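4.2 Preliminary Data

To establish feasibility before requesting continued support, the project team ran the inverse folding procedure on a target of 96 residues. The structure was first converted into the token representation described in Section 3, and no sequence information of any kind was made available to the design step. The complete token record follows.
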């Protein structure tokens, strides 16, 4: 359950997506009472391509769990994905 910061309505968030321009997609939900929009994240074409590649590797890993090389590739992609998302969404880099 989510509580709207604007009108205090409790509701189940329905995740939506919309293109902000030809490259940037926003993932968001909105309050059904007051229509306040809550942005969850933004992504771009490069991130969406990496998402698709990560999904393929994940599907392969589900079948072949004992593949250390593929696990290492996945971890590298996950770090790259986080870095790209943080940069696009204006978050500070995680130096830990």
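Position-by-position output of the design step:
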């Amino acid at each position: 359950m989510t509580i709207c910061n604007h009108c205090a309505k409790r509701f189940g968030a329905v995740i939506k997506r919309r293109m902000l321009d030809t490259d940037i997609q926003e993932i968001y939900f909105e309050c059904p009472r007051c229509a306040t929009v809550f942005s969850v994240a933004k992504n771009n074409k490069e991130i969406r391509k990496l998402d698709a590649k990560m999904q393929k590797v994940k599907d392969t890993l589900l079948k072949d769990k004992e593949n250390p090389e593929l696990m290492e590739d996945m971890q590298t992609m996950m770090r790259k994905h986080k870095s790209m998302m943080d940069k696009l969404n204006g978050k500070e880099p995680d130096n830990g």
